[in-house]
From TrEMBL:
InterPro entries: PCN, Quinoprotein_ADH-like_sf, WD40/YVTN_repeat-like_dom_sf, WD40_repeat_dom_sf, WD40_rpt. Keywords: WD repeat. PROSITE patterns: WD_REPEATS_2 (PS50082). GO terms for biological process: meristem growth; meristem maintenance. WD repeats lie at residues 200-241. This is Anaphase-promoting complex subunit 4 WD40 domain-containing protein. Residues 526-537 have a biased composition (Polar residues). Residues 136-168, 514-537, 797-820 are annotated as: Disordered. Residues 143-161 have a biased composition (Acidic residues). It holds the Pfam family WD40.
């Protein structure tokens, strides 16, 4: 029986998504949030694998308005490219993705920046080829005039000269500024940041949107005066001007053109503040079609790879689909038009409204297209599992059915802080997938029991402060409700309700039918039970947690990482500038049995030469503080702040994966302080010996994905459990440098069972007792318990039963207690009703769950555009 203590008092205020941008190779999506932070998400072809592997902390008064990826060349070239951000503060920042620090900050020379637009790579490649051809022709002409033939070394030098010329082709960036100018900056391979080149003529109002034609000969800009202007990118001459209100809901001085999009066939798409999406002929600015399907501003536009489908997102929460069709035949044009020299549209091709999705509850501010990576040769494939046939409704909305490698996906984000993915080629056929179920969840760390009375300390990291809570984890002090879970049985997650007969507060629920009272069973699909949707959960009268201390960061930088010692005496955090260490008075933390006691905070000195940390951790004995950065892990003496040792973190070979010098995103130590495991954003796991103070082992990338969490077993300090972004669990013998026998024997079966686990695994928890053999893996949606002393079996085949409706309405036939179940073996997961931010063991059979109802989070967000509901 597992007792679950739930806590909802934590502050959780995620920030809105304001911009999205896809990397040069299409494998990473950058998401900028309103608080100035930037998240890098790995693109995955399935419902699992999406993982935020890097987070650049924000800063106070930072207002990012646009993101852009540029090509990367030179010595530090990466497939992802170079990431730039611009904001309303008037600065353009290039980010170092290894140190998570600003690499170069440039001024816009025009005030606030509303949008960045990079020159298309296709045009850049053509320019590079033409320049290389001219160079080779010049070299060949020079060689004809020379006497004799050139040597092999001379030809090699010419090739190197030609390749270097190809590398130094600069990419142009169009910047829409607040003063009414479009400014051109360039990005070179051997220069940091952007270099200012020229400015277009100033116009009335602000430049709110800007885009390039695919051949990079024209620049289109939309302003706050309701006009769309077309400039020649070389002569900076205005070619034509469009009044955006024509064909929509009318023009006016307050009309704003928020978004522009240039298509391959020359069509220009605009979205404005009246809710209109208009299609313009790109040669002369003639209106082709206009649609007013949005009830509020159209804020973002995106196109499918074939450029025959356009997506529009608005402040009304809709994502709308427009498609190019041939009215004469009624068929989709599919982007294959017979074109003239100027690649114009056929007369009978029209853009028509097809449908929309409304999954966001608030404004949708950003759209982006991404491409899942096609599996490389030699990479191990995930096992394919034979499944029972699903119903037609389930198959239509099955995310795994359309999420395949190479299929383009649309990503949307907005004020509700969520990120949704859609199939770009089958937008209306499937439901989207929520890849960010718990956005910007606070980092929570549990210090454990501090006394026999059951008082524990929990730390929660927020953007500009650290909260330290004291709580009573005794069984009779549950603040919200108490759950009884018995893993491996037929009925999971059974709850107590007020209207159940003979309800007794504080007694765990017997779920196998062997107790004195037997509660009714409401089974769900696959042998799992779900919470009663129509009944209120009974609360037990307990003692609410008390805020022990709040430590505020006095700089403008947001907190990047934090840690609390196992005894609850020390708290450390770091921003982008430097780390800080604080001490809480011991008598106030553990000596008093009252939750009303307040902690006394004392700042401890650290060496001013210490670099900013990306990850922090205290050793189990609370005597050493570990600071992790890109290239090293520093061991700090907590008492005097001296550096005891520095571990060098480097990839196993110089030819590592992209961004081989990657930030450290997670660290853990064994219970006896012998081993240290550090995971990096590139997927490597480095093992260090804290006793010998040396590097021990570099674990290769597991199943091709990044590690999301790791923990050592208390019963065996050399056993490391790792979870990956692909929802896989691996058990390693650190001392022997290999997988354990259990992991080798059950790894394939376990990977099949985890395919159905809701959400991506974000954390692991093990009981603190040395005799325990279980681990709980959890996501924001569910948790699963696995016993390493037992094997994991495949699904058993059930006999077909006649469908019978019941309370949950899923058509599954009810089963009696004690009957055989498909989940009677060593694998069973329990779904959560509300997003879970943290889960940790407080005892052998007791866990603390930190959760927050999503509706409470939405109440903190400004209200969306009013939408009348039928019957209200």
């Amino acid at each position: 029986m597992l007792e679950v203590h739930r806590w909802r008092q934590i502050d959780w205020a995620p920030s809105a998504v304001v911009a999205l941008a896809t990397s040069v190779d299409g494998t990473v999506v950058a998401a900028a949030r309103e608080n100035g932070s930037i998240e890098l998400w790995n693109v995955a072809p399935g419902s699992v694998g999406w993982h935020c592997h890097l987070t650049i902390p924000g800063r106070e008064e930072a207002a990012i308005s646009s993101l852009v990826w540029c090509k990367s060349g030179g010595d530090q070239s990466t497939p992802l490219g170079r990431l730039f951000s611009a904001g309303l503060d008037g600065f353009i920042t290039e980010w170092n993705l290894q140190t998570l620090q600003p690499k170069e900050i440039s001024e816009s020379y025009g005030g606030s920046v509303w949008q960045l637009a990079a020159e298309p790579l296709e045009a850049l490649k053509r320019a590079a080829i033409s320049s290389n051809g001219a160079l080779l022709k010049k070299n060949s002409d020079g060689s004809d005039n020379d006497e004799g033939s050139s040597s092999d070394s001379d030809s090699e030098e010419e090739e190197e000269e030609g390749s270097s010329h190809h590398d130094i082709v600069e990419q142009r960036i169009a910047v829409g500024c607040d003063d009414g100018c479009v400014r051109i900056f360039t990005v070179g391979d051997n220069q940091a940041g952007m270099l200012y080149r020229r400015a277009f003529p100033r116009v009335k109002g602000r430049i709110l949107s800007v885009t390039w034609s695919l051949d990079a000969t024209r620049v289109y800009a939309g302003g706050s005066d309701g006009c769309i202007r077309c400039w020649d990118s070389k002569t900076v001459r205005e070619l034509f001007r469009i009044t955006a209100g024509i064909g929509g809901r009318g023009a006016g001085s307050e009309l704003c053109v928020w978004s522009l999009l240039a298509l391959r066939n020359g069509t220009i798409v605009s979205g404005d503040s009246t809710g209109s999406t208009q299609f313009w002929e790109g040669e002369h600015g003639t209106l082709l079609q206009g649609h007013s399907k949005h009830n509020a501003d159209v804020l973002a536009l995106a196109a499918a790879p074939a450029h025959n489908v356009v997506f529009a997102a608005g402040a009304d929460g809709q994502v709308t689909l427009y498609q190019l069709v041939d009215e004469s035949s009624g068929k989709d044009a599919n982007g294959t038009h017979p074109t003239s020299e100027k690649n114009s549209l056929r007369v009978r091709d029209r853009w028509v409204y097809v449908g929309n999705k409304r999954n966001h509850t608030h404004d949708v501010k950003a759209l982006a297209l991404a491409y899942p990576v096609v599996q490389e040769e030699g990479q191990t494939e995930r096992p394919v599992q034979k499944r029972r046939r699903k119903s037609r409704a389930q198959m239509k909305n099955d995310y795994k059915k359309w999420a395949q490698p190479g299929i383009p996906m649309l990503i949307s984000g907005g004020n509700d802080c969520k990120l949704f993915t859609y199939p770009a080629e089958a937008f209306l056929a499937f439901h989207p997938h929520d890849i960010c179920h718990a956005p910007q969840r606070p980092q929570v760390q549990f210090a454990g029991d501090l006394s026999s009375s059951g008082l524990s300390v929990l730390m929660a990291q927020h953007s500009t402060w650290i909260d330290v809570w004291k709580m009573n984890t005794n069984r009779n002090a549950v603040t919200d409700m108490e759950l009884g879970y018995e893993f491996g049985k037929e009925v999971l997650g059974k709850r107590k309700f007020r209207d159940e007969a003979n309800y007794v507060v504080g007694n765990p629920i017997k779920m196998n039918g062997t107790g004195e009272k037997k509660l009714p069973v409401h089974p769900a699909s696959n042998g799992r039970s779900s919470p009663y949707p129509s009944k209120q959960v009974a609360s037990t009268k307990g003692v609410a947690p008390a805020l022990l201390a709040r430590i505020k960061c006095k700089t403008v930088e947001h907190i990047a990482c934090s840690a609390i010692s196992g005894d609850g005496k020390y708290v450390a955090f770091s921003d982008r500038l430097k780390p800080r260490l604080f001490q809480l008075e011991q008598q106030q933390v553990g000596a008093s049995n009252s939750l009303k006691a307040k902690g006394i905070i004392a700042k401890k000195k650290l060496s001013p030469s210490l670099p900013a940390a990306q990850c922090m951790l205290f050793t189990p004995d609370s005597t050493r503080l570990l600071l992790g950065s890109t290239q090293q892990i520093m061991v700090i003496n907590v008492e005097n702040g001296e550096v005891l040792h520095s571990f060098k973190v480097a990839p196993p070979s110089a030819r590592g994966p992209k961004g081989s010098l990657s930030p450290i995103n997670f660290m853990c130590t064994s219970a006896d302080s012998q081993w240290l495991a550090a995971t990096t954003s590139s997927g490597y796991i480095h093992i260090f010996s804290l006793e010998a103070l040396r590097h021990h082992w570099s674990v290769p990338v597991m199943d091709g994905t990044v590690a999301t969490s790791a923990i050592f077993r208390p019963s065996s300090s050399n056993v490391l459990i790792i979870s990956t972004a692909g929802n896989q669990l691996h058990v390693l013998d650190v001392e022997a440098k290999e997988l354990t026998k259990w992991s080798t024997a059950n790894g394939e079966v376990l990977s099949m069972r985890l395919l159905d686990f809701p959400g991506g695994i974000t954390g692991l928890s093990v009981p603190p007792t040395p005799v325990s053999t279980t681990v709980i893996a959890y996501s924001s949606r569910a948790m699963v318990q696995i016993d390493f002393s037992k094997p994991v079996k495949l699904y058993s085949h059930e006999p077909k039963e006649k469908s019978q409706a019941h309370a949950n309405g899923n058509g599954a036939a009810p089963k009696q207690n004690g009957s055989s179940s498909v989940h009677t073996d060593n694998f069973a997961y329990v779904p959560f009703k509300d997003p879970v931010l943290f889960l940790g063991h407080t005892a052998q059979s007791s866990v603390l769950v930190v959760e927050k109802p999503w509706l409470e989070v939405l109440r903190q967000i400004p209200a969306p555009v009013y939408r009348h509901l039928y019957g209200t």
